[in-house]
Amino acid sequence: MITAKEDFPILKNGLIYLDNSSTSQKPAKVILAIKEYYEQDNANVHRGIYKLAQKATVLYEKAHETVAKFIGADFEEVIFTKGTTEGLNLLAYSLGKNLKAGDEIVLSEMEHHSNIVPWQQIAEERGAVLKFIPVTKYFRLDLEKATELITEKTKIVSVVHLSNVLGTINPVKELAEMAHKVDAVMIVDAAQSVPHMPVDVKELSCDFMVFSGHKMCAPTGIGVLYGRKGLLEKMQPFLFGGDMIREVSFERASWNDLPWKFEAGTPNLAGAAGLMAAIEYLQETGMENITTHGQELTAYALEKLSAIPDVTIVGPASTENRGPVISFTVEGIHPHDASEMLDKENIAVRGGFHCAMPLFSKLGIDGSLRVSFYLYNTMEDVDRLVEAVKKMVGEMGTETNTINRSEIAPSDLTEEQEIYKENVIDHYKSPRNKKEMLQYTVKHREVNPLCGDIITIYVKTEGNNIEEISFTGNGCAISQASASLLTENLKGKNVEDAKRFNQQEVFGLLGIPISHTRTKCALLSLKTLHHAMEEI
Q1: Which of 454, 428, 441 is nearest to 495 (CA)?
Q2: How many Cβ atoms sit within 10 Å of the Cβ of residue 520?
Q3: How far apart are CA 408 and CA 283, in angstroms?
Q4: Which of 85, 22, 47, 87 is nearest to 351 (CA)?
């Protein structure tokens, strides 16, 4: 097992950090590289001829070379972006220019929003058709269906390498072969795979690949787009401005050589220094060692978590073709509530839809908890997690809509706040007005993307008064109690009073301290109400 925790300053306080699919922590080497850049090398690149500017340019170009070698690419094929999302948007914009009505784009059902939404927008603009490779009951892609979906009309296939929800490692090389048979381009979202395993773009046979630095020990704001040189040369730039031009007149402009053609403006130079240091750190550890370490942690955690009553794993049951990501649900406990309970144990996990709402809709699940491991995590971290989940299950019991009173608000409350807390718990366990209204004047639906809370509010008016009001939806304890309290308070009220109802009044109904991360949960029903009232 790798023992790297001491290299990461933020982990010295005993934090068990298990949200690495979201972002990784940074080793001292990377933090130092960023510091040294600003202290010793800070100047703009590809502009000045003075020594400091040349020093910064050499460092920046060396970062490109380091990334290129890391993924088996050529120097000209590595473009620095802000991250995976920008890389995918760049591809959608530039490749989308060549799409015609009826052309097809093939994705999968397990994609991150960043690999769905840009293609949705381009498809709508160009009249193209989106298709999705289904996820089987074993949480794998249906390759037989993929062969049917990838046709002569297919121009783009874009698929995640390692799912940020299921942990599934997809056979992107096989999908690339399918795509190339019909002269389609193959794009790989490698945001989750590059940090955890050796990845070679030539071996994957992909035409484009995107990933982010911040998930692999590098700073935020720096990412990579790999593209085959011949394709990049034919593509139009995504952004225009300084450094990406060759020549400009008042009438026209021409573009710089690769990769600078796609890097307009002053780049994230400190981020590039940090990314280079992160890759050096990972290579010193050994990517094969990191892969093995992740597999061992995942196997151990799968065994332990699967044995806990009321815990259901969402993803493949074995570690074969599986990355160090485990999503799971706990019966009767909303993921947002559960993640906050684990936070009280100094364990950081993710709760919600993980930017993959369509996948959860397909699976019929209202979000999940997710733990994701990296090279600094240990078996002891897994043991701490398992014990905390067991404790949570034991305290909560199996009755739906129960909640541990110590988790709904801090324990150091005034006598009045304690009364309010019991009221909030009551409205969560036995929500008032929670029903679908068949005859209504207006209704509106809102979603909290942070944790996946969903609220639909129905309002029936008589004249200028609210005759009846109700809500439906799923969510954490705070969002559900808030919706119940709000609808109960507005019964019989004037429409104008409802329109003027504000945030402080909602907090007044709850009557207990609300943490910053739960504010959107508490105010979701009010936001939904206000949008509904706009239609009256």
Answers
A1: 441
A2: 17
A3: 44
A4: 22
Q: How far is CA 262 from CA 90, 273, 467, 498, in A?
A: 9, 19, 58, 50
For the record, the structure tokens of 183 come out as: 């002269």
CA dist., res. 195 & res. 384, Å (int): 24
Each residue of 373-385: b (16+ CB within 10 Å) or e? bbbbbbeebbebb
Confidence grade of residue 199 (pLDDT, cut at 50, 70, 90): very high
Residue 464: CB atoms within 10 Å: 10
Nearest to 305 by CA among 357, 371, 254, 259: 371
Active site residue 451: no
Separation between Cα atoms, residue 385 and residue 352, nearest integer Å: 18
Of 219, 226, 174, 169, nearest to 192 by C-alpha is: 169
Sorted by where each starts, the structural domains of the chain and their CATH numbers stand as 24-83+213-285 (3.40.640.10), 85-206 (3.40.640.10), 286-396 (3.90.1150.10), 415-533 (3.90.1010.10)
Distance (Å, whole) CA 142 – CA 134: 6
Catalytic residue among 206, 217, 355, 476: 355
Is residue 172 predicted with pLDDT exceeding 80? yes
pTM above 0.70, yes or no: yes
Mean pLDDT for all residues in the chain = 94
Tens digit of each residue's pLDDT (9 = 90 or more) over 347-361:
999 999 999 999 999
d(CA 185, CA 157): 6
| Degrees to nearest 5, angle at CA 208 with 204 and 214 | 95
Q: How far is CA 347 from the centre of its chain?
A: 19
At 467, the amino acid letter reads E
Q: How far apart are CA 294 and CA 86, in angstroms?
A: 28
